[in-house]
Amino acid sequence: MKRFAIIAAMALMMLGFCGKASAQFSSDVPDLKGKMIYGGNFGFGISGSGYYLNLSIAPQVGYRVFNPWEIGVRGIYNLQCYFDRYEFYHYFGVAPYTNVQFFRGLFIHVEDEVTYGFSSWNHQTSQGKWFNTVFVGGGYRQYSYSGSFVYFMVLYNLSWGLNLPNLPGAWETPYAPFVIRVGYCF
Predict the structure, then answer these.
(1) Of the options 3.20.20.70, 3.40.50.2300, 2.40.160.20, 3.90.76.10, the CATH number for the domain spanning 2-185
(2) Is residue 159 a contact partner of residue 140, using CB atoms and an 8 Å limit?
(3) How far apart are CA 183 and CA 4, in angstroms?
(4) Which terminus of the chain is more exposed, N or C, with fewer CB under 10 A?
């Protein structure tokens, strides 16, 4: 299932790449052919009562292979704190990704994230666990005159619901079915 989803998404990206729309060459989308891309996103959330905190840092490095096609890798650190229970969850990982811009800043995105997570409770650390999450989705980039951009993405977690308890090697994921990201790249 995972391999089929990745192959299908890559095929869609290649179809989008081969069918170059004239909008890709309009004046509001700068030509970024052959450029390195640096950036990422930062996330922060806290509950209204102050008992829950979520902190996420995800730097990324990418390369624009052709004008609409980008490949790269993201680093991930995510911290979840439950102060009322003294529980802390740490996740570290990497996520190779690819995306294709198909119309005036709109793009499709595929990512395969591998993270290692462990928790600590009352000053005791639990044994760690590996997670594999596959995301597909799309988003929008708002370009500036310097070629940098802010991106907005909505991703669907293909690994959601696949953690069957009686199936050996079943996938588990620390994410919800839908993930929203906002980031900056230059």
Answers:
(1) 2.40.160.20
(2) no
(3) 28
(4) N
